[in-house]
Structure formats: structure tokens, C-alpha cells
Amino acid sequence: MQVPTVGCSLRGVSMSGVGIPPGCRAFCSLSHSGLHCGGRNVQGTDLCYQALVAWAGGLVLPPPLVPVVPVSLAGSTNDTGGRLEPAPEPQRDQTLRQQGPLASPIPAGHPAVPTKPAGPWRDCAEAHRAGHEQSGVYELRLGRHVVSAWCEQQLEGGGWTVIQRRQDGSVNFFTTWQHYKVGFGQPDGEHWLGLEPVYQLTSRGDHELLVLLEDWGGRGARAHYDGFSLEPESDHYRLRLGQYHGDAGDSLSWHNDKPFSTVDRDRDSYSGNCALYQRGGWWYHACAHSNLNGVWHRGGHYRSRYQDGVYWAEFRGGAYSLKKAAMLIRPLRL
Ligand SMILES: [Ca+2]
């Protein structure tokens, strides 16, 4: 891997700046020929590299890789002479297991008794209030349209609408703006509810977002945001996020206030096309700390030219493709 270098236009510019973590100066340095990362082969596995990419956004950049080692694990890889190879798998898993018990399970996707309760409903929360406490596929009325969605009615008081789910790789998420707009997949399986339906839902009032993740060892994690909404299509379904809480690590706030990008609608902050490299639509910045719409690589660690897995960098890193992921929203209770 070539040492990342940005153009000579950066000569004389200090590396310190907004978003540059303390310590980066130790190995990110300027030289007469430009900005180098100190001769280290940092690739996309280095937080400093990621900061460099963000800082130098729009200039000549290497492929859009982002931190693939969670902060909690970064310290365990500092004895590799700068090559930041992934730690041996058994060692890494041990580290993770020490961090605590499993979080809440991912919605199973298949109810014990399939139901299709009367509707259509305003949202899953309304159905729950009406006494429908069985998780399953419900019909929701959004404007003039009726869409099918999975309602998670047992988890933490119920009333959750699942807007995204990955669990078995059965659906191709490398698709176009129009599909991401209207939705695709199956509500009782892998599913993308659709940007327009989610916009319609979240434009009615304040919502919260719950992201549930599970790795291939069965370890779960969650990220909760106490605010979640999308702007209308005219603003490219720009993401508006509230405060993060949880144990997964916050891999979405970096994407706050970013428009949605797909392979055919590049609205990201990177000179190239993040959705093309990462093979899925997302609220890319330059490019991502998370992409739950990437390629569902079986087994976790994957080898790919670009960082295109289903990942949440602060949980298992960008080079680890998660087994399960789900995004659920619910109106905030006043
Ligand atoms: Ca771009």
C-alpha cells in the first residue's frame, strides 16, 4: 500500500486543525513534497489517516477508507511496527467478551404467529396503543400511500417501526436512488423501508432511533439517538440526529446533517463516489464511520478492495461485516 500523500498545495500548512486528534502529529507530518503519514503504512486502519482524509477533503485523496479499528482496540495493535495488521482473532474476541454482557437481541424477523392486524395504522406506536402487542408486519398509512413495515412490539415498550434490517444477505442493497427512496426488500426479512416513508413518519413529530447490532460471535450492541428525522427529498433526505447513548459506540453522529447518497446520486463530501466504493446508499460524509447498507460478507472479517461491508466502525471496526443490523424508530413520548 502506497503511503497516502496529498498534493503539494498543502506545503507549509500545519497538520493541527479541526478534527485532528491529539497525537496525530506524532506520525502525520509535512515534508517538502507534501503531506505524508510519516512513512507508516497506515491505510484505512488509522484514526489519524481518517482525520487526514476529512481534513483534506476535496483534494487528491487515496481510496475512501475510514477507521477500521475501534478506539477500544486501537491500543492493542500498536506493536506491529506501524503496519496495524488486524489483531489475531482469538485475542480480539477475548478483548470484546470482557466488555460486558450482550445487549438486546435483534428483532427475529419471523413471529411465532404471523399476523396482519387491522390497519392501516399511522405508525407502529399507534397499533401498539390499540393493543396490538404482537411483533409482525403491519400496514402503515403514509400520506396517500400504504406501506408494509415490521413493527417491533415487545422491545422496550414496543411501538418501534423497523426502517432497516440486515440478517442473511438475501437482499442486494447496492442499488439506486429510486429504490432507496421508495424502499425494497421484505418487511419480515432484509428490508429498507424507504427514505420517503421515513421522511413522512419523522416529519409528523419528534422520533428516536435505535440501532441494534450483532456480530458473528453473538455479541450484541446498541446505539440510541434521542432525535431522528430526515429532511425532504428536495434536501436529499438529509439526516438529523439527536444525542447518542449506548454501548456500540457512536458511528453515526459523524454523518449528522449529511444528505443521503447512492451510487447514482453522489452528494457526499468526498471527491469520489462513496456509495460506489462502499456498495450501498448511506448518509456519507468522506466517507463513513458506519454503513449498514453495505455488502453482507459472511463470517465477519472480510477482504475487499474497499471498505464495503455492513459495518459500524466504533463497534467492530470497518473491516468487520456484521451478522445482524437493524434500525428502528419510534415517536418520542412527551
Ligand atoms: Ca463525491
TrEMBL record:
Residues 77-123 are annotated as: Disordered. GO terms for molecular function: extracellular matrix structural constituent; protein-macromolecule adaptor activity. Residues 115-333 form the Fibrinogen C-terminal domain. PROSITE patterns: FIBRINOGEN_C_1, FIBRINOGEN_C_2. GO terms for cellular component: fibrinogen complex. The keyword Transmembrane does not apply. Keywords: Disulfide bond, Glycoprotein, Secreted. Signal peptide: none annotated. It is found in: Secreted. GO terms for biological process: blood coagulation, common pathway; fibrinolysis; platelet aggregation; positive regulation of heterotypic cell-cell adhesion. It comes from the Eukaryota. This is Angiopoietin-related protein 6. It comes from Carlito syrichta (Philippine tarsier). The gene is ANGPTL6.
